[in-house]
Amino acid sequence: MFLFFGDLWYYFRWPNAKRSEEDARMTMGTERIALGNTDIQVLPLGVGTWAWGDRGYWGYGKSYGEQDITEAFVVSVNKGITLFDTAEIYGGGTSERLLGNLIRQTKAPVVIATKFSPLPWRLTLGSLPQALDASLSRLGVETIDLYQIHHPYSILSIEALMDALADAVADGKVRAVGVSNYGAEHIRRAHAALAKRGVPLASNQVNYSLLKRTPEKNGVLDTCRELGVTLIAYSPLAGGLLTGKYTARQRPSGPRFFLSAMTRMECIERVVDTLRQIGQDHGGKTPSQVAMNWLIAQGNVLPIPGAKNRKQATDNAGVLGWALTPAQVEAIDEATRSWR
Ligand SMILES: NC(=O)c1ccc[n+]([C@@H]2O[C@H](COP(=O)([O-])OP(=O)(O)OC[C@H]3O[C@@H](n4cnc5c(N)ncnc54)[C@H](OP(=O)(O)O)[C@@H]3O)[C@@H](O)[C@H]2O)c1
Questions:
Q1: Which among 90, 182, 208, 234 is annotated as catalytic?
Q2: Which candidate among 50, 51, 78, 133 keeps its CA 20 to 30 Å from the CA of 70?
Q3: What CATH number corresponds to the domain at position 147?
Q4: Is residue 313 part of a domain?
Q5: Is residue 265 assigned to a domain?
Q6: How far is the CA of 44 from the centre of ligand 1 (A)?
């Protein structure tokens, strides 16, 4: 009798349980998440704008220009992707200027993330409010949503920098504070210093992709999870290598050619093949979409792929609204474990 009711319960419950698991996977990435413990809500995908205006590394003005990035911006906001990551140093300020122009042309609630670079000649804390004012002016806004310290290498201590950031929050010039390229211990110090001022550390932006799985090994991912800090994954396509368009015979041009020359392209082709096969099970998702869907599946991870044009922005937006099965997450983990 007991078994009978047990079986009956299982019989009625199982199809629903299965359906709700599928529903959850279909809607994954369509709900907004908070950036750390802040009130800033975004989809779990942003757009990186390093290439917007950068001629030296990315070749702005050659194969793509202002019209292309305008279209990338419009496609992204139309898909509900509102987080745009820039930095004062991208294109010597051009990325901030271009983003500022685009923001003025939309009613979409764009979330601006930019960065202060603690350059070696910035020897005093006064450099931070000065750089912040310059970023505000280039962007043409009164408040920056997420202001990040670009890297931890500076003569200025982490505690002093966090104090200056907390002052900027108190002044109303910054809504939330983030860091970038911070190791586990750096994150703890930044988090503790800000906590003294009642400001949460919203995010840490680090290099994280299927070809760069260091954050899983060096404690950064675990520390972010423990402290409620969102891990923003930069170069989530490994600078384009995970898109599948580059091979040992077809390498990227410019400075990336030399970087790819130091990379095991044949191994990357095998990874991309796995991603392509798995993408077929989801109606032909591209390797890029599968690679970034895997990052989101790790939890507390928000990729910010760079997009140079409408085609790339459209493809990248297709990361959202579906999810890999647990078995596929595991298979990709297995296929890229040597990149940890
Ligand atoms: N905090 C830091 O220190 C730091 C460092 C690096 C980057 N970042 C941030 O992270 C963002 C993203 O990183 P990233 O730009 O270095 O690398 P990425 O996102 O891994 O790769 C971007 C490049 O891949 C290609 N691409 C992108 N989407 C594509 C698609 N769907 N199909 C085909 N090709 C595509 C484009 O270049 P091609 O068309 O030329 O191949 C694009 O410029 C940056 O824009 C920046 O905001 C931060």
A1: 90
A2: 133
A3: 3.20.20.100
A4: yes
A5: no
A6: 16
